[in-house]
Amino acid sequence: QVQLVESGGGLVQTGDSLRLSCAASGRTLSTSARGWFRQAPGKEREFVARIRWNSGSTYYADSVQGRFTISRDKAKDTVSLQMNSLKPEDTAVYYCAAQLVPGSEFTYWGQGTQVTVSS
């Protein structure tokens, strides 16, 4: 059994920064990519960022490009999301996820961590 556990959420003000982390536990998780998604109240879950596990190549949603940075620590089996210049519209529950096969759906999901940005 594999578990992904997010941490680092909280309440901040507009313009502040937060760093989210996601650790994998359980059996060794061999993944193609790890990603971050978010879901705001009353909205569908949306993609935020993705990092290829081996190459480290990254991809971002337009809404966070230039403000958020995804990174991974292969030795610790963790993925992080550095969020700068936060806006109220970034308020959401943030989920990390793991993709096992390139091009496939993200298979494993964390329980989510709340990020609230006040204006």
Strand content: over 45%
What would you call the structural class?
A: mainly beta
The helix/strand order is EEEEEEEEEEE
Q: Count of DSSP E strands?
A: 11
- What share of residues is helical? under 10%
Tell me, what's the shape? Answer: globular
Q: Kindly state the mean pLDDT as a whole number?
A: 94
Contiguous uncertain segments of 5+ residues:
none
Distance between the termini: 40 Å
Radius of gyration: 13 Å
Structure, described:
By secondary structure, the protein is mostly beta strands. The protein contains no helices and 11 strands. The chain has strands at 2-7, 10-13, 18-26, 33-39, 46-52, 58-60, 68-73, 78-83, 92-99, 106-109, 113-118. Strands 2, 4, 5, 6, 9, 10 and 11 form a 7-stranded mixed beta sheet that branches. The chain has a 4-stranded antiparallel beta sheet with strand order 1-3-8-7, with no helix packed on it. Strand 5 and strand 6 (58-60) form a beta hairpin. It is globular, with a radius of gyration of 13 Å. The N and C termini lie far apart (40 Å). The mean pLDDT is 94.
Summarize the structure.
With about 120 residues, the chain is mostly beta strands. It is about 0% helix and about 55% strand.
